Amino acid sequence: MTDAAPTRAQRFAALVAPAAHRAGYTGHGSNARLARDTGMSESSVSRMLKGQAIPELVVFPALAEKVGVSLMDLLAEMGIPRESLQPLSETGPSQVGSPSISPAEAAERLGLSDPVGREMLIATIERLKRLEEQQHDQPEPGNGHGGAAAQM
């Protein structure tokens, strides 16, 4: 009987779990602390560290920062080729004012052929766009719309 290749979630855990340990997320309550520090739920942290699930892409920047792993390494572990990520970190003046592309076009340009990876990227982009719209729709504190009692 041959050993099955590790799943993407297991490879992700093999990268993140030791880094989390080195970053001080050890002992009782470590999953709760990592959850609080990254914006993940405690159950998501637990599943991630056990190699059972990969968190949503929206938490990758905080996760990378807190465990001391580069964001590029996390994204590469998701199967996104490093060479397709390099231009994203080199935004220059020539890209200012370029036309918008759809989430599907972004997945295509990144060379994502795995249907699950493509759908994860598209869903994450769409979720981020909705969150951005919600933030723009909410009044700013102290802008003359009243305090918490006036908004109830």
Mean pLDDT: 79
What radius of gyration results from the CA coordinates?
A: 19 Å
Low-confidence stretches: 88-94, 145-152
Provide the structure class. mainly alpha
SSE order: HHHHHHHHH
Which term fits the overall shape?
A: globular
Helix residue percentage = 55-70%
Report, as a whole number of angstroms, the end-to-end distance.
63 Å
Helix tally equals 9
Number of strands: 0
What is the beta-strand fraction? under 5%
Biggest sheet statistics = none
Description:
The chain has 152 residues and is mostly helical. The protein has helices at residues 8-22, 30-38, 42-49, 60-67, 71-77, 82-85, 103-109, 115-137, 148-151. The longest helix is centred in the C-terminal third of the chain and has 23 residues, at 115-137. The model is unreliable at 88-94 and 145-152 (pLDDT under 50).
Brief digest:
Helix content is 56%, strand content 0%. It is built from 9 helices and no strands. Mean pLDDT is 79; it is low at 88-94 and 145-152.
Which tags fit this structure?
152 residues, 56% helix, disordered C terminus
